[in-house]
Amino acid sequence: MFNIGGWEIITLALLALLIFGPEQLPKAAQQAGRMLRQLRRMADSAKNDIQEGLGPEFRDFDVQDLNPKRFVQKHFWEEEEEAAPRRATAQLNGRRPPFDDEAT
After folding, report:
1. How does the average pLDDT of the chain come out, rounded?
2. Which of 9, 32, 49, 83 has a CA between 20 and 30 Å from the CA of residue 39?
3. 98 vs 16, 87, 89, CA distance in Å?
4. Is 82 helix (H, G, I), strand (E, B) or coil?
5. Pfam families, alphabetically (predicted)?
């Protein structure tokens, strides 16, 4: 999700232990968990309010569609992929070659 590896997690855990101490670390983790749950509930509630406010004609509306990157992908790239005929890819023993056959 955040592209964090094992060493980064260990480093963050040690840093948290040094900052909060062994007595306060469980309380801080509990508070952080509560805060994340509350934020998630608030976001879900806002999403439901938006969907209800738009009415029944927008039941399939997804809030992620408001993201400009996703909007462009959905409305421009999908149409090109559907319109473009698919070419047969060069095969090597039933598998794709390890290079880009269009570049050579």
Report:
1. 78
2. 9
3. 44, 17, 12
4. helix
5. TatA_B_E
Torsion (CA) 91, 95, 97, 98 in degrees, nearest 10: 170
In this prediction, residue 101 carries a pLDDT of: 58
Buried b (16+ CB within 10 A) or exposed e, 11-27: eeeeeeeeeeeeeeeee
Whole-number Å distance between alpha carbons of 38 and 40: 5
């570049």: which residue's tokens?
103
For residue 76, the tally of other CB atoms under 10 A from its CB is 10
CB 9 within 8 A of CB 3: no
Please name the amino acid found at residue 39. Answer: L
Q: Are 51 and 61 in contact (CB under 8 A)?
A: yes
Residue with the larger pLDDT of the pair 2 and 45: 45
CB 25 within 8 A of CB 38: no
Task: Report the pLDDT averaged over residues 16-43.
Answer: 93
